Amino acid sequence: MSDGYDAEFLGTPLPLPRPAHDVRTLPYPRFTVLLDPERRLAAVTAVNIDGATLQSLPRTGDWRLDERLRPDEQTGPEVYARNDLDRGHLVRRRDPGWGPPAPARAASEATFFYPNAAPQAAGFNQSKELWLGLEDHVLAYAESTDQRVSVFTAPVLEDSDPPYRGIRVPLRFWKVAAWRGPDGLAAAGFVLDQSDLVDTREEQKAVPLLGGFRTFQVPIIDIAALTGVDLDALTEADVLARPGARETGWLPLDTAKDIVL
Predict the structure, then answer these.
(1) Mean pLDDT: which of 55-59, 72-76, 206-210 is highest?
(2) Are 75 and 40 in contact (CB under 8 A)?
(3) Helix (H) or strand (E) segment spanning residue 25
(4) Which end of the chain is more exposed for a tag (fewer CB within 10 A), N or C?
(5) pTM of the predicted model, to two decimals?
(6) Rounded-to-10 torsion of CA 151, 55, 8, 18
(7) What is the mean pLDDT of residues 152-171?
(8) Containing domain of residue 118, as a range?
(9) CA distance linking residue 88 with residue 128, whole number of Å
(10) In-domain check, residue 174
(11) What are phi and psi of 21, to 5 degrees?
């Protein structure tokens, strides 16, 4: 379908992180999804963002199944019908939409394939807006380095995730943003926790809003331990692990000003 994630995009090699288990590799324009066919959700997504040439594009595109997969290997429209679950973009719609208008539009519309979605509790509040804006914050920080960022995002796929309509709804999501800093590769890791919002105790039950999303900046080594994804190259570049960085553990984020870069 396209060339997918570019490991050389930042000017220093950054391989696509992979989990230990088997996944389906799905390249799209400027991003790649590694799909876990048993969970029917992405184990990893990876996108290259050129902030200097991002296009402001109208929202176009309809959610659709990827014909490279069987329908029972992806989480399709039946999971999102008649409830309060959102089709949450993993690779954001605008992130691959850079460069000349035509390829930017094609890349943006490709984010509407179901392998790039995961069920998220509906509704927007300050914490979720912060989560969705993390790439923008990192792009602004990386302005002196050509505004190029590679971002990796996925649900934390745990055996304890609650069952719902033939899938298990993930309660946490992770994101790692990487850029080229003055001293080489730099990266920051984040976790979104929606545990307080999701109630699937009854099959076919709507998922109500029960509280706020919680967003944390976390050591990337903790994300690797949570997910089983090989993040070694990013762990070594973690801004929380650099010499002189204060011990933060899991740092709750209320605004972008709380982010350590």
Answers:
(1) 72-76
(2) yes
(3) strand 24-28
(4) N
(5) 0.91
(6) 30
(7) 95
(8) 24-258
(9) 11
(10) yes
(11) -90, 170
DSSP code string of 164-180: ETTEE--SEEEEEEEEE
d(CA 115, CA 63): 10
CATH number of the domain enclosing 143: 3.40.570.10
CA-to-CA distance for 69 and 206, rounded, in angstroms?
Answer: 27
Domain count, the chain: 1
Weakest mean pLDDT among 14-18, 32-36, 78-82: 78-82
In the beta sheet, which residues pair with residue 258? none
- Residue by residue, what is the 3-state secondary structure of 3-41? CCCCCCCCCCCCCCCCECCCCEEEEECCEEEEEECCCCE
> How far is 190 from 220, CA to CA, in rounded Å?
8
**Cβ-contact 148, 186 below 8 angstroms:** no
The answer to whether residues 46 and 150 touch, using CB atoms and an 8 Å cutoff, is yes
Q: Residue 130's closest CA among 239, 216, 250, 240?
A: 216
Within-domain flag for 13: no
**Percentage of residues of the chain with pLDDT beyond 70:** 87
Instruction: With CA atoms as reference, report the closest residue to 4 among 42, 41, 53, 45.
Output: 45
> How many residues are recorded in the chain?
261
Q: Which residues, in sequence order, are CB contacts of 139 under 8 Å at separation 6+?
A: 49, 51, 147, 149
Residue 39 falls inside a structural domain: yes
